[in-house]
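Aim 2 progress update. The chain analyzed this quarter is reproduced below.
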Amino acid sequence: MSTPFSKIDPRAKIGNQVTIGDFCVIHANAEIGDGCVIEDHCIIGYPTPLAEDRPLRLGAGGLVRSHSVLYAGSDIGEQLRTGHHVVIREKSVVGRECQIGSYTELQGDLTFGDFSRTQSSVFIPKHSSIGKAVWLLPRVTLTNDPHPPSDPGDLGVRVEDFAVLAACSTVLPGIIIGRHALVGAGSLVTRDVPPERVVAGVPAKDRGLARDILLRDGSGKPAYPWIRHFHRGYPTDLVQAWMAGDGAGPPGADADEKE
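Predicted structure tokens:
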């Protein structure tokens, strides 16, 4: 379903039960899966020669909120959720059930893993690699150019599965943030962060094991790995796998530790 106020190229491939709002532009190279909702003032399949004639593929069940732009050449999994004014540029590979917060930009030529989430105003540059079930909180900035401006500026950041980058943290080019690691709010990360470690400060320094941080609810339970206690919005089968120990515990943890 679309409105007369939108411009939809007849060559676009649009699935069943797709809703398109007012003043949208759907380009010829767009492939929109079944059940997607495209809100007002969106551009889908924005053309660019950098896409190398690849289409924009948006998986089934996506929700693209108003004023967002999805470029040609990207492949986006099912059940995407965006905020408002999101930009996903060419040759981004975005996994299933991802959430991209308002005013976030994915600059293209990058990967963004299944179930990963950003909150608002996050910047992810080209050649970045975001793992599965990663959290990037408000105003996180990843960088890829050690001597700006330079060409090609391709030292992207790698963030591994389950890592959390807290608000306003900045990561310098080529850095690796390890699995289950935590970057404190406002940090400037200049060195690789090993798995399961906490870093914080300017420049960020190692502050110990993430699993030593306790929840502030009086329970005395560890706050990390976060997948042991925070499950809102994640599929039941995925949560069951987490609680069974698939990815939840530190290397070498026994069954009692994983509960």
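The radius of gyration is 19 Å. Residues 236-243 form the longest helix (8 residues). These observations will guide the mutagenesis experiments scheduled for the next reporting period.
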